[in-house]
Amino acid sequence: MAAREQWGTRAGFIMAAVGSAIGLGNIWRFPATAFENGGGAFFVPYLFALLTAGIPLLIMEFTMGHKYRSAAPRTYSKMNKNVEWIGWWAVAVAFVISTYYPVIIAWSLSYTVFSFNLSWGADTEAFLFNDYLQLADPGQFGGMTIGVLIPLILVWAIALGILFKGVQRGIELANRIFIPTLVVIFLIICIRAVTLPGAAEGLQAFFEPDFGALTQGGVWVAAYGQIFFSLSIAFAIMITYSSYLPKKSDITNNAFITGFSNSSFELLAGIGVFSALGFMAQQLDVGVEEVVAGGVGLAFVVFPQIISEFPALSGLFGVLFFLSLALAGLSSLISISETYIKGLQEKFGWTRGKAVGIGGGAAALCSLIFATRGGLNFLDAADYFINQFGVALLGLVEVVLIAWVLRKLPEFQQHANAISDIRLGGWWKVCLGVITPIVLGYMMIDLFLQNILKQFDTENGNYAGYTDGFIFASGWAVALAALAAGIIMSLIRWKGLSK
Ligand code: LEU
């Protein structure tokens, strides 16, 4: 058996981990989530979630990867062979994310091209939904959208090409190029954005605290959801990446660097986005809250509008913005796919090439669903359900299992302390063993109740107003399928490395 692949340098590992963390979540998810959840007051639950759950979990996953030197399924099975299914469940959740995530990167590539002559015109909403996505009704496929399909193929070709090259010559090298480029581009965007007329009003809307929001459970749920998704924790990624760390590596310090870099970028994105929104609001002579929109709407409806209004060099600004979205997304997509590529390699003894071909090929094939005319609706439902009942639920299962069932925290603490600059104290165990399970446990009960009760609530209805049938087929079924796939994979015999 060939020696395990390893990162070439410490900086290479950090770039890759930061590259995974910084993604679409930072640029189009964070600013809108913060604004919807109390603006400046969101920082309180956000920082609380970062410090008590995000960074402690990141340290834990880095320790697991480093200690067991395996992708998630084998890591879990080495802890206890009865829990291998949790590792596969995490991998299956990553697989689902990797089927819709590249579609958003594909849109970004298209919009990079559209930026050259601002081809979205005056009505950017109609352009996105009617001209570009040609959106069909929820539940309908309505045939492929060629405009999405072509960049999607390109995204997969780049990602799988890099993954095929392996850890050092593929993932590490790509991130060493992507991440510094991304930071430079994004700084240019932010500097331009904060110097636009109206930027101050935008920033005020972003930072103005609404402390009443702190008493709402939903704000805390949003903060935890954002931290988990954004730090790529709880779904196999960071375990896989840290399994390539050389024996002599720092764990705790690397986790702090990764966590703080990600949050700094998130803050930067918030500043850039809200400055631009302030500018837009001033142009239209309305309040900032009237131009803000969540998710897809923010990046692909509001931003094109802002870009068109730019005093000068609109096209260039558009190219930079959408290119940064694509770059941030690509380095994250690579990390999501590496979870199943390495998992399959270890389980079946496949070469990297075979695992990239089969695993990556399967994900690419499934992603075609989201390139159909009904794609956006499927994407929206899958994203919501897999994040709540995949990522957040897995986070809870993971901490409860490790802290209380297997009681591994003292052993992990020793392992990390033996090789790290920063020593972990009792606070780390309190965060993972007490605070995180309580907050996440409460959140999950509330979420289940809300989503189940919604099926009977004729007034407020389902998530985003979708029908029961659609929510079941595109939401619940996807989240359940990931769990089922995890269990089935764990029942198959190991043909590669021993478990
Ligand atoms: N952390 C990434 C982001 O913020 C997402 C993850 C699924 C790789 O976009």
Verbal overview:
Helix 1 crosses helix 8, helix 1 packs across helix 15 and helix 10 crosses helix 17. The model has no long low-confidence stretch (mean pLDDT 91). The protein is 75% helix and 0% strand. With 499 residues, the protein is an all-alpha fold. The chain is globular. The structure holds leucine. Leucine (LEU) binds next to helix 1, helix 2, helix 10 and helix 15. Leucine binds next to helix 1, helix 2, helix 10 and helix 15.
* Ligand species: leucine
Name the overall outline: globular
* Regions with little confidence, pLDDT below 50 for 5+ residues: none
- Percent strand equals under 5%
Give the overall average pLDDT: 91
The number of helices is 20
Query: Could you spell the SSE succession in H and E letters?
Result: HHHHHHHHHHHHHHHHHHHH
* Terminal Cα span: 14 Å
Query: Portion of residues in helices?
Result: over 70%
Radius of gyration over all CA atoms, rounded: 22 Å
> Which structural class matches the secondary elements?
mainly alpha
Tell me the major beta sheet. none
DSSP strand count: 0
